[in-house]
Amino acid sequence: MNIREAIKARHSVRQFKDIPIGEAEAEKLKAVIDECNSESGLNIQLVLNDPDCFDTFLAHYGRFKNANNYIALVGSSSLDDLDERAGYYGQRIVLEAQMLGLGTCWVAGTYGKGKCKADKQAGEKIVCVIALGYGEDEGKSHKSKPLGKLCALKKEDMPAWFKNGMLAAVLAPTALNQQKFFIDIDGEDAVITPGRSPMAKIDLGIVRYNFEAASGHRCVPKVK
Ligand SMILES: Cc1cc2nc3c(=O)[nH]c(=O)nc-3n(C[C@H](O)[C@H](O)[C@H](O)COP(=O)(O)O)c2cc1C
Fold first, then answer.
1. For ligand 1, which residues put their CB under 6 angstroms from it?
2. Structural domain harbouring 195
3. pTM of the prediction?
4. What is the crossing angle of helices 200-215 and 82-99, to 10°?
């Protein structure tokens, strides 16, 4: 499975099989996480075999089952773009997990915040977590806004790279599936504007990663 296939195949998975993540898969995930941490300055951590974090009323209400493994997106509160960075690198890890045959779900609300086992250094905070494991199913496609609401160009006016990027942006997970972003073109780059919502900056990073991975072109946040 290549990255574009992973983008298409990924859907949120909330019910997992009660089996641990294989050693080889865990090692590969740790290697990707190390790369992400050294590039981003974040302190992303893989937590395995911990049923407590999703053993809460909210998590059960959110239909999570056997969510015993997760990635905690941790970083310094002093970073202006902490949420966006967590979104960008988290999505890189999500797509690697997909290529390893693992299901994932981004979770900012329905987990036990006080029960998360990630280590925090002074001045750090947990942005959100990503549940992962072998899915009971593959999840299902989300409903999407029409392209015209997410993008300044008509499909027939898009260069091939931009079209590939937009198709991947539309498939990106966003909080409550709100898809609050707008993408334009600027020469060889795409320019993305986030909407207003509490999770919009995390979503911004996720959508940027999907766009760049599928198009091979930069997707830069609009400078106001
Ligand atoms: C930043 C963020 C936070 C999310 N928080 C939660 C959550 O707390 N609980 C949950 O069940 N799903 C959560 N989701 C998953 C979204 O509901 C899901 O990604 C969206 O409905 C699109 O569906 P898809 O991931 O299957 O494409 C979150 C997603 C994102 C990107």
1. 11-12, 14, 62, 105-110, 128, 139, 142, 173-177, 199, 202-203, 206
2. 147-221
3. 0.98
4. 50
